[in-house]
Amino acid sequence: MTFEIFLVAPPGLEPVLAEEAQAAGFEGVATLPGGVTITGGWPEVWRANIALRGATRVLARFTEFRAFHLAQLDKRARKVDWAGVLRPDVPVRVEATTKGSKIYHAGAATQRIERAIREELGTSIAKDAPVQIKARIDDNLVTLSVDTSGESLHKRGHKLFTGKAPIRETMAALLLRQMGFTGAEPLVDPMCGSGTFVIEAAEIALGLLPGRDRAFAFEQLASHDPTAVAALRTSPPRDTDLRFYGFDRDQGAIKGAGENAARAGVQDVTVFARAAVSDLARPSGPPGLVMVNPPYGGRIGDRKPLFALYGALGEALRARFSGWRVGIVTNDGGLAKATGLPFLPPGPPVAHGGLTVKLYRTDPL
Ligand SMILES: C[S@@+](CC[C@H](N)C(=O)[O-])C[C@H]1O[C@@H](n2cnc3c(N)ncnc32)[C@H](O)[C@@H]1O
Fold it and tell me: Do 177 and 234 meet the contact criterion of CB atoms below 8 Å apart?
């Protein structure tokens, strides 16, 4: 059985996720607003959840049919092969949206689909159910998907310390990919907070799968095959001589980031130390990538002192990081400019926690 699989992406980074899906060997990769579609069956659903670093969640679009009125939706929803997807003993919830369709009442549509599942399969409906069915009714076409991820995939299961304004792992991974990072060079994050860039980079270098440790909603579905999934969770271990460095002036951040790295099992290749950007030192060894998201304009603190901070960051990098590439993620082009770094044209706007950020990249300094 194959169907369309929708990989939700952080808005603005869809093409980067498409690249990742392509590189991971998925088929039928196409970029859409809000995500990427691939084609496959349940094994591809499992692998996308476990192996893709950039996807926010994975939706399996297991069937579609036309419905022009609620009675027709009711009849056709009852004919769906629910037993092929859901388990009678695992509660489910349904969320419907409708657009440009004769069925315009999403609540009524939800209720018909819930009733069909309850009466045809015997599955109970609960608001806090671990499995969610999404029904999208667009131009009278009903597309049924099951959310196979559960908790958002940026939760790898290791970052218990989050610090101030952490970046999501999924977004961090896509931005690293945009910088051309493959795990073959060292990385420095001079304002590492909870250590997201550093830990993602170390995991990439060690060939660790992002979903190796967490639970997924697909484990609660009828198609779940624990032996096949266990095999997908393990990857051939890779070693690296490289190191991935995180600095921050906040001792609490350094302690928390170190603990996050230990939980992720990357403590041997990561180094966290307290330092202000003005004291930032270049690690010995080959040049690599500096990746940083400094405090944002308008989110933490005032904009004015931030000019000095971005200026100090730029000065340290220009003085001591020749040969390194720099990627700065910020919501404020004026602050980026204050670094005095020779940026290439910025990346597209990316939605991030109510802000719009861009990636400012340099070639090797
Ligand atoms: C937006 S947060 C970074 C979040 C991080 N990317 C994460 O995922 O958790 C900015 C960080 O810059 C640090 N910071 C602010 N001023 C600094 C300075 N002068 N030197 C070093 N770090 C600084 C803050 O302590 C904070 O952790």
Answer: no
